[in-house]
Design a protein that fits this description.
By secondary structure, the chain is α/β, with parallel strands linked by helices. It is built from 15 helices and 25 strands. The longest helix has 21 residues, at 245-265. Bound molecules: flavin-adenine dinucleotide (FAD). The site of flavin-adenine dinucleotide (FAD) has 33 residues, from helix 3, strand 3, helix 4, strand 6 and helix 13.
C-alpha cells in the first residue's frame, strides 16, 4: 500500500517539528484516526487539501503562556534583517523559506568566476538569529508558502524534500500572531520564449554555481581535439542580457577572469573567448551620465562587446534579436530586472503600482490585520502618496530593521498577539533616504554615485578610488565576522594565486 508507506514516512518526519509541547503543534503523531481528523480540520478551516489523502500538520495558535509567534516568509535581505533585530524574549520566530541562508547578493557575481567562494556570500539563518536553532518555539522550515488565510491567521506551506529519496512534498499550516511577507521578487523574462529553459539567472548561489560549472566546462571542451572552429567560438561566447548593475558587474568579472586567468591557464583558447552584453536601452540607466559613459569606456577597453538590441527568442544554442540577428552562445546569463512572483500575484490583497503587495507607511498590509510586507515583494499603495521604492538591498534591509523595531515595540506594549494591536500607537512611520549606488566595471575600477536621486546634487566618483570604496563598503556590510574573514581571504588568495578554476 504505497499511500500507507508515504503516510508513515511523513509521520516520522513531521514528528521532528513538534520539538516541544510548548509550541502546541496541531499535529500529534501517530494515530491514523487523528491524522484524518487533522486533515478534515485543515480542510474545514480553509487549509489546503486535494489528493487521495492529505495530511496537514503544523503549528497551531499560540496559547496564553506561550510567546506570540512572528512568521517570516523568506530569508533574504529584508526577512533576515528583521529576524536579526527581533526580540526573541518577546516573540518566537518561525521562518519559512526555500533556502536556509541569506545571499549577500552584491558579491554574488564574483563567485561565478571564482574571485570569491560560494560560502563567503551565504549566511546561515541560524547564525543571523540563533534563537531559531535553540528556542523551543522558534523554527526554520524548508518550504514554500503558497497560501495565506488572513481571516484565520494561518499560512499554508509546502515542504521541499528534493533530493531526500522518494519523499513527496507535503502541506502544513502555521498559525501566526504577526506575519511578515519578505518573499522577494522574480526575474523578469517579458514572456520571451526559451529564457527559462536555456538562460541562467543570477539571483541565488545555485545560479552562480551553474554559471561557474558551465563556463569551466565550455573552456575545457573547447580545448578537446575534434571541436570545430565554429563550435569553439560558440562555446566560448558568453552572452549577458541586461545592462543594469548586475549585468554590468557580471560582465566586468568575466572580462577580468578572461584577462587575468584564462589567458594564462587556457592559453590555447584565449583568442576565442568573448563577452557580449546586450541591452535594449542604455546601460546603468539609473547612474549619472558621466559615470555611464565611463562604464561604457571601461567595458569596451576590457573587451566586452556592447550590443543595443531586443531579444526576441532564446534557443538552446543561439538567441535571436528583434532585427533578425542570430547570436550563438555557449553561456547565457539573463539579468533584466525583477517583478512580482507568482506567490505575490496570487495573494488576495490590494497591490501597489507594479503589482507588488500594497503597504502603508508603517509597512502594514492595511487591508488585513497583523500582516506586514517588506523588501522587493512590497510597494507603497498609491493612497500613501509615496513612490514605490526600488528593488534594492538597502531598501529591504532598512525596512527589515524598521519593522523589527516596530514589532518589538508592539510586543513590549502587550500588542504581540493576533488582533491585539489594532488601536495602538505605532510611532514614527518608515522613511527611506537613498544613500547612493555603486557598481564595479572590472579592472579594479568602479562607480560610486552618492546622490538621493538622478536629478539631485551630490558626489559621483569613478576609477580605482571608487573600486576601493566599493570593496571596503561591501566588506563592512557582510553580515558576520566569519564571512567578512572569508571574503577578505578570498580576495587576497585571488590576488596572489589567481582565481580558482577547478570544476568540482
Ligand atoms: C546579483 C545581484 C546583485 C545585487 N546587487 C545589489 C547591490 O549591489 N545593491 C543593492 O542595493 N541591491 C542589490 N541587489 C538587489 C537586492 O539583492 C534585492 O533588492 C534584495 O535581495 C531584496 O531583498 P528581499 O528580502 O526583498 O528579497 P530576497 O533577498 O530576494 O529574498 C527573498 C526570499 O524569499 C524566499 N521566498 C520566495 N518565495 C517564497 C515563498 N513563496 N515562501 C517563502 N519564501 C519565499 C526566497 O527564497 C528568499 O529567501 C542585487 C541583486 C542581485 C540578484
Amino acid at each position: 500500500m504505497p499511500w500507507f508507506r508515504t503516510l508513515i514516512q511523513r509521520t516520522t518526519i513531521l514528528t521532528q517539528y513538534s520539538k516541544s509541547q510548548k509550541s502546541t503543534p496541531i499535529f500529534t503523531p501517530p494515530s491514523l484516526t487523528q491524522l484524518l481528523h487533522f486533515s478534515t480540520q485543515a480542510a474545514e478551516s480553509g487549509g489546503s487539501g486535494g489528493g487521495a489523502l492529505t495530511v496537514t500538520a503544523g503549528l497551531g495558535r499560540t496559547k496564553g503562556d506561550e510567546k506570540p509567534r512572528v512568521v517570516v516568509l523568506g530569508s533574504g535581505w529584508a526577512g533576515c534583517r528583521l529576524m536579526k533585530g527581533i526580540d526573541t524574549k518577546v516573540y518566537d520566530v518561525v521562518c519559512v523559506s526555500p533556502r536556509n541562508h541569506m545571499v549577500f547578493t552584491p558579491l554574488l557575481a564574483s563567485t561565478c568566476v571564482g574571485t570569491l567562494e560560494f560560502r563567503s556570500v551565504a549566511e546561515p539563518i541560524g547564525r543571523i538569529q540563533p534563537a531559531i536553532s535553540s528556542e523551543p518555539g522558534s523554527y526554520f522550515f524548508l518550504a514554500d508558502c503558497h497560501g495565506v488565510d488572513f481571516e484565520n491567521h494561518v499560512v499554508t506551506c509546502k515542504s521541499l524534500p528534493d533530493g531526500a529519496g522518494n519523499l513527496e512534498p507535503w502541506d502544513f499550516n502555521i498559525s501566526y500572531d504577526k506575519l511578515v511577507i519578505a518573499a522577494g521578487a522574480e526575474a523578469l523574462t517579458f514572456g520571451i520564449k526559451g529564457v527559462k529553459e536555456h538562460a541562467i539567472f543570477l539571483r541565488e548561489v545555485h545560479h552562480a554555481q551553474e554559471i561557474r560549472r558551465k563556463l569551466l566546462l565550455n573552456l575545457m571542451l573547447s580545448d578537446v581535439p575534434g571541436v570545430s572552429e565554429e563550435e569553439k567560438r560558440r562555446l566560448l561566447h558568453c552572452v549577458v542580457v541586461g545592462g543594469g548593475p548586475t549585468g554590468v558587474e557580471f560582465s566586468g568579472e568575466l572580462s577580468d577572469f578572461i584577462m587575468n586567468d584564462v589567458r594564462q591557464r587556457y592559453s590555447h583558447v584565449k583568442d576565442y573567448i568573448h563577452v557580449t552584453l546586450i541591452e535594449a536601452k542604455e546601460i546603468l540607466s539609473s547612474f549619472d551620465d558621466g559615470l555611464r559613459h565611463y562604464a561604457v569606456k571601461q567595458l569596451v577597453k576590457s573587451g566586452v562587446h556592447l550590443v543595443r538590441g531586443v531579444v526576441k527568442d532564446v534557443q538552446p544554442e543561439k538567441i535571436v534579436l528583434s532585427d533578425g540577428t542570430d547570436v550563438p552562445y555557449g553561456l547565457l546569463v539573463w539579468s533584466t530586472g525583477v517583478g512580482p512572483s507568482g506567490f505575490v500575484n496570487n495573494l488576495d490583497v490590494p497591490k501597489s503600482p507594479g503589482g507588488r503587495i500594497g503597504i502603508d507607511q508603517y509597512l502594514r498590509v492595511p487591508s488585513v490585520p497583523d500582516v506586514f510586507a517588506v523588501g522587493d515583494c512590497s510597494g507603497f499603495l498609491e493612497t500613501t502618496g509615496k513612490d514605490v521604492l526600488p528593488a534594492l538591498a538597502q531598501v529591504a534591509e532598512r525596512q527589515g530593521k524598521y519593522l523589527a523595531e516596530l514589532l518589538n515595540k508592539l510586543g513590549h506594549a502587550g500588542g504581540g498577539r493576533a488582533n491585539s494591536a489594532n488601536n495602538m500607537d505605532l510611532g514614527k512611520s518608515f522613511v527611506y533616504k537613498h544613500l547612493g549606488s555603486m557598481a564595479t566595471v572590472g579592472r579594479y575600477k568602479a562607480l560610486v554615485d552618492i546622490r538621493e536621486s538622478k536629478s539631485a546634487k551630490g558626489v559621483s566618483l569613478k576609477g580605482f578610488v571608487s573600486w576601493f570604496i566599493w570593496r571596503s563598503a561591501y566588506l563592512t556590510r557582510v553580515l558576520s565576522w566569519r564571512n567578512r574573514f572569508y571574503v577578505a581571504i578570498n580576495w587576497l588568495t585571488t590576488l596572489v594565486f589567481g582565481r580558482d578554476i577547478t570544476r568540482i
